[in-house]
Structures are given as C-alpha cells and as structure tokens.
Amino acid sequence: MPIDRRSFLIGVSALSVASFPVFASSASRIVSLDYAAAETLISLGLPPVGVQSADHWNRWVVEPELPGSVANVGQDLAVNLEVIAALKPDLIITTPYTDMLRGRLEPIAPIHMVAVYNQTGTPLKNAYVETENLGRLAGLQGDADAFLTSADAEFEGLKVRLATKKRPPVALVNFMDRRHVRIYGASSLYQNVLDRIGLENAWTRPTNYWGFATVGLEELARFAPQDMHLIAFEPIVDEIKPTLASSPIWRTMPVVQNGNYQVFPAVLTFGMVPSALRFARLITDYLEGLPS
Q: pTM for the full model?
C-alpha cells in the first residue's frame, strides 16, 4: 500500500522541538557528512555546499548527479574541519556514525543527525520522515512534500507496470570478496522497496540491524531457489570477476547456468528515497525485459 505520509507527519510533529537546531532563518548552506542526506537535498533543489567523500560519489551513489560546486570535506571520520569552517555552513548533517564528531563540529555550525536505520526495520518509512525533517530545516517544506508525493506516485506506477510481468524471487547482493557476499533481506531499504512494488525477496533468512547477512558462495548456492534471479550491484572489484568465472561453485549454481544473474549499476545501499527510487526503476526495467 502507498505510504501514508499523514501518519508520518503526525510522528514528525510529535518530535521535541529541542531535537531540531534553532535558526533565525532556514538553513541554506548545508554540509552533509552523509550521502543519503546529500542525495535528498539535491532532490529537493538545495545541494549541500560540502559532502564527505565527494570524490567517491560516482562510485557509490551515481544518481542524482553531484554538482561540481559541492566541496569535498574529507573522508568519513577524518573530515577536514578547516574546509568545513571555510564553507561557512549554517547546518551540518551527521548520522549516528559521524555524530561522534559532534563535539568538534558544534563550534562551526548547528548539527542535525539523520537516522534512517533503527530497530523498526523500516528504513524507507524513516527516510520519508527524515526528508520532511530536512525540508523543514531548509525551509523547503513544500518541495519536500512535492517530492514525496511524486515518489509515492512513481512507486505505485512501477508496481502497476510489474503487475502483469514475470516476477521471480530475487536475491540482492554486494560482493565483499571472491568468496563472500552481503545479501539483503528484512530491515533493508531494498526489502522495503520490494514490498512496495510487489516483488518477492528470495532471501528470507535472518539479517542484521542493517538488513543484510554476510554469507559464503557455498551457502548462497545451497539456499538458492531454482527460479531465483541473482542481482549483484556495482562496484565489483576487478579481481573478483575472473575468480568467479573459474569457481566450480559459482559455475554450477542454477542461477548462473540459467542465465539469471545480472549486475546492476551502483545504488546507495543505505540511501534514502532517491536511492529507493533508483533501485525500483532498475529492477522494474530488468524484470520487464525478461522473456514471458
């Protein structure tokens, strides 16, 4: 069913006002220490002035495009405080991971922590809430609302497109090395998207807090249903591909022998609504291209 944003807004309104930074006016110069928040701000029409690991954006995010005006403020927890200060931000966005830098960042600008993953196992729903929060902080409430309304419509349209198509169970993985994959299931953004557009995840076994399990190729081969389609996401390290080609376990997996293995372009695994839409489009296009 479409996500009921009214219920989300009720939840957002119930948040303590003290949990939001206080501004004389809306934030317009935002530094994001999180790709997911950055892709959301871009989608709302307000790209951040700086983002962590900007030089790796096209490897992990790709879409939306990162404007050339966005400064690289350093890597993960090794951000450059001088660069951030020079950008004169009026808001810095962190995550539960990068929020450990709060004490060093607070002298520069107010902090807002974006938290999409929690015990609820509903990152897509949480991403809707955080999009509303960012819209509020940036004075873009109308833009956030319009973006989420458009997202609702697109998810529903993709579900309709798939309703009459072949919809085999899909397994979604990132290769960690030549023998192990990270496979996504319950509590992942991918699972939330599959549920939203009416698709079945082949991996129904337990996952961790982040919605994935790390398994060996042997286990992947043992569990795989005969009709499963296996989708791996870029980036895949170059040395993994020839190793797979020579692996007896890999070559004898039915999903490989049947030609039901596909590599997708990179999608931000722990992204927000823009990444959810990107994945939904990619998998819809893929399934529509399968023979009937």
A: 0.92
Q: How far apart are CA 221 and CA 241, in angstroms?
A: 17
Cβ atoms of residues 125 and 3 within 8 Å: yes
Bridge-based pairing of strands 91-94 and 180-184 is unpaired
Superfamily of domain 30-114: Nitrogenase molybdenum iron protein domain (3.40.50.1980)
pLDDT digits (tens, 9 = 90+) for 71-125: 999 998 899 999 999 999 999 999 999 999 999 999 999 999 999 999 899 999 9
Averaged pLDDT for residues 199-228: 94
- Cα 227 to Cα 271: distance, rounded to the nearest angstrom: 29
CA-to-CA dists, residue 213 to 116, 191, 204, 251, 275, angstroms: 19, 13, 11, 22, 20
> What pairs with residue 79 in β-bridges?
74
Domain 153-289 in this protein, CATH class: alpha beta
